[in-house]
Amino acid sequence: MEFRVEAGRPDRRTLSRAAAILKTGGIVAYPTDTLYGLAASPISAAAVRQLYRIKGRPVDAAIPLIAAGVAQIEAAGGELGPATRRLADAFWPGPLTLLLPAWAGLDAGVHAGLGTVAVRVPGHPVARMFAELCGGPITSTSANRSGEPATMDPDEVRRTLGAELDALIDAGLSPGGAASTIVDASGRVPRLVRAGAVPWDRVLECLE
After folding, report:
1. How far does CA 152 lie from the centroid of its chain?
2. Is 15 left (phi over 0), alpha (psi -120 to 50) or beta?
């Protein structure tokens, strides 16, 4: 099933229909502020297994999440630590991903047994509204088969994965660009996990 929405002004009713598919175990492709991603409910073991199968993803590779906002993350996983909250306030919505302790209820496949989960609030209205309507954080692995290029084009998602998806939210081309920066700010010293769109020196400046 396909749902077409405007990137800047998504229709809530349309996205509610896509969210209903996810809530019943479906896999939904959707736009983010970088590339197209694949959404599954991270609390559904069956949906997470299906996501791994569609991507051909190694089961020891953890899956990142997105959320509608800080409040949704804290409702699921508890209050953010001081440094993590400071980075969230400074860079969200946007391409900064933060490592958090995996919370109760998450399927173990999401964090691949690592005990931490990577989460961000994206700067794309469709992605944020979709996560809001899904009622909690959703997965955000790129909408491609493992080992193949990620894409900003819904037509490419349709061509490569369309037959295996339950729904595609088409909002036109995503902005593309560098992947999100991943940071672990839970310890005494912040750690850069993956360089990306937010420069590391800006992260450090924020925490000074």
Report:
1. 14
2. alpha
Q: Is residue 54 within 8 Å of 26, Cβ to Cβ?
A: no
Q: Which residues contact 32 (CB under 8 A, 6 or more apart)?
A: 66, 122, 124, 127, 140, 174
Q: What is the C-alpha separation between 19 and 190, in angstroms, rounded?
A: 35
Report yes or no: 98 and 183 within 8 Å, Cβ to Cβ: yes
Specify the CATH number of the domain 2-207.
3.90.870.10
The whole-number mean pLDDT for each consecutive block of 10 residues of the chain, a chain of 208 residues, reads 95 98 98 96 97 91 96 95 96 96 94 93 98 98 93 97 97 92 92 95 93
Q: In the chain, what are the domain boundaries? A: 2-207
Pairing of strands 181-184, 191-194: antiparallel
pTM above 0.90, yes or no: yes
At 79, is the secondary structure helix, strand, or coil? Answer: coil
- What gap in Å lies between CA 20 and CA 33, rounded to an integer? 23
